[in-house]
Amino acid sequence: MFVTFEGIEGTGKTTQIGLLAEDLTRQGKRVAITREPGGSRIGRELRRILLSLETKDLCDRAELFLYLADRAQHVAEVVRPALADGMTVLCDRFTDSTVAYQGHGRGLSPDLLRQLNDTATGGLAPDLTIVLDIDPEIGLRRALSRNLETGAQVSEGRFEAESLAFHARVRQGYLALAAADPGRIRVVAADAAPREVFASVRAACQEAAARHG
Ligand code: TMP
């Protein structure tokens, strides 16, 4: 199964992915955890360019194509081989991030983005996508304090520096994507304690696994 996690900054994706990986491993499944941008060797170089505050001058279209390049490399080198090997792949962000951030956030055409995503992935779509949903004010506060703790504010702070209005558009983008594709995308409220949030994540995953067979 291929499961992706989405949401604005500070929703706790990393924590939920860790909890789900533990749970699946306990059930005897082999799990691969990966992420975009930066899930491949080349992708890690692209991630540095994409998230640094020092590349504020990156224009919207150049940003888009770097995310797509990261995705094409990641799918070919990491995701498809892991799925072919029978692993459950848990991926922190995927195609929906591009529609939400570059589409709803930056204003690029969502239809164009869907086509380009398809080219980048060769048509690979997740079996389940969990959108962790939170008020952007709470999410950004969490993300900024995490960045201060880890010292990531200069190396990975480009999106956290965007306005609250930008993140509100991204959040609405995710909710619109979920409304249009309720079979694949589940929205989970992310403002509760991590264990409570995980109960919903786990239920969505079990339901998708039963569907997947
Ligand atoms: P994160 O991995 O720490 O969540 O940060 C990745 C950032 O990149 C996040 O702010 C969202 C952004 N992003 C896009 O704008 N478009 C994309 O396609 C992807 C994968 C991420």
TrEMBL record:
Protein name: Thymidylate kinase
Gene: tmk
UniProt GO MF annotations: ATP binding; dTMP kinase activity
Record function comment: Phosphorylation of dTMP to form dTDP in both de novo and salvage pathways of dTTP synthesis.
Keywords: ATP-binding, Kinase, Nucleotide biosynthesis, Nucleotide-binding, Transferase
GO CC term (a single one): cytosol
Residue ranges constituting the Thymidylate kinase-like domain according to the UniProt record: 5-199
EC nos: 2.7.4.9
InterPro entries on file: P-loop_NTPase, Thymidylate_kin-like_dom, Thymidylate_kin_CS, Thymidylate_kinase
Reaction(s) this enzyme catalyzes, per UniProt: dTMP + ATP = dTDP + ADP
GO biological process, alphabetically ordered: dTDP biosynthetic process; dTTP biosynthetic process; dUDP biosynthetic process
Family the entry assigns: Belongs to the thymidylate kinase family.
Key word Kinase present: yes
Chain residues that bind ATP: G7, I8, E9, G10, T11, G12, K13, T14
